[in-house]
């Protein structure tokens, strides 16, 4: 069963009923609809987390002495939200236990633009590194702007991204997903 809020701090577990065990018998996790595994609390937390991500991208430091306003397309927002919830569903505290490192890749450089604790009141159980990319169709047009131009110039992100998951309580291998 799903952990109760108070159990997350102690990393204790809640037990399911026997009926749940009988129903789940013979069904593997990959066969189950992942939507059934999502916690409504995680859904709300993820929406709030995406707001913080967008605010952070709204003032992203990508060059020396310069910040950019990075625009996240709706399709990218939906994909990232789905991926964050999917990666959190197997964690003891769900999305509440996440630390999110936000990076933006342009050219061969990768810029760290923020670090976000999904729930600062919970001891983190896993770390996600989200690597977003600038829209490559814009790169030749904006390459010259890195030396001059207005502060907080808007740039659009590509719908492709990479996310890396590292469990902080286990020596399990690093999981890297390209989307």
From TrEMBL:
Its main location: cytoplasm. It is found in: Cytoplasm; Mitochondrion. One of its GO terms (biological process) is apoptotic process. Transmembrane segments: none annotated. InterPro entries: RTP801-like, RTP801-like_C_sf. Keywords: Apoptosis, Cytoplasm, Mitochondrion. Pfam families: RTP801_C (PF07809). Gene3D superfamilies: RTP801-like. GO terms for cellular component: mitochondrion. One of its GO terms (molecular function) is 14-3-3 protein binding. Residues 1-21 are annotated as: Disordered. Belongs to the DDIT4 family. PANTHER family: DNA DAMAGE-INDUCIBLE TRANSCRIPT 4 PROTEIN (PTHR12478:SF7), DNA-DAMAGE-INDUCIBLE TRANSCRIPT 4 PROTEIN DDIT4 (PTHR12478). This is DNA damage-inducible transcript 4 protein. It comes from Pycnonotus jocosus. The gene is Ddit4.
């Amino acid at each position: 069963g799903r952990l109760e809020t108070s159990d997350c701090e102690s990393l204790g577990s809640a037990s399911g009923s026997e009926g749940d065990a009988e129903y789940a018998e013979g069904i593997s996790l990959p066969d189950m609809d992942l939507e059934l595994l999502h916690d409504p609390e995680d859904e709300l937390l993820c929406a709030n987390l995406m707001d913080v991500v967008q605010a952070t991208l709204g003032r992203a430091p990508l060059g020396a002495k310069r910040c950019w306003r990075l625009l996240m397309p709706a399709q990218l927002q939906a994909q990232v939200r789905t991926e964050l919830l999917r990666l959190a569903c197997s964690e003891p505290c769900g999305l509440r236990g996440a630390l999110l490192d936000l990076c933006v890749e342009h050219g061969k450089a990768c810029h760290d633009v923020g670090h976000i604790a999904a729930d600062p009141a919970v001891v983190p159980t896993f770390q996600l590194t989200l690597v977003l990319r600038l829209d490559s169709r814009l790169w030749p047009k904006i390459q010259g702007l890195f030396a001059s131009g207005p502060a907080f110039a808007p740039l659009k992100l590509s719908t492709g991204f990479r996310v890396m998951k590292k469990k902080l309580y286990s020596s399990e291998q690093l999981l890297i997903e390209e989307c």
